[in-house]
């Protein structure tokens, strides 16, 4: 009779067990973090049903987590999951360089399916341009530029110290600091330097090893 028949099914009809679990391939598979900065690996599994999701460290096939339970004695590893979500996140607190490598998100189907994630943990360091000691004449300007190397994210702050103390702008005029987070650089300018400005200057970013330079302000010629 040419008429089409439209069948109406409850939404659960489309979530029948015959749908096998599969990975959402839009998640980020390469993650870089700095030493000490928590890392998150996001695994998304569709149609999980009653299967379990495990995280496994590939280099020694060590099971780190199953579901939301941590199976390793190393409590830096934790599985994060919200009820109703299809995301299973491996959180690695205080990562070290040795934690770099492949981590597998594995689903307990038969046979098992897994997706590999690569974590790189890098040492972020500050570097002050020039030599480790700087000699300048009294009355000249001290001009120091600090660059933060090997950092995936811009540091949230970069402090300058003289000796053990944060540089105090109110103590003397003529001090300026210009920090550009996106280019990961900070410049310290002390105009008309005096002998009292001699000392050890340190650039200390929030998420990187600090760098220092020893400044000698010389009187006269």
UniProtKB/TrEMBL annotation:
GO BP annotations listed: synapse organization
Domain of life: Eukaryota
InterPro entries tied to this protein: Ig-like_dom, Ig-like_dom_sf, Ig-like_fold, Ig_sub, Ig_sub2, Ig_V-set, Zig-8
Gene Ontology CC, one term: neuron projection membrane
One Pfam family of this chain: V-set
Annotated ranges, domain Ig-like: 21-108, 111-214
Record protein name field: Protein sidekick-1
Organism: Trachymyrmex cornetzi
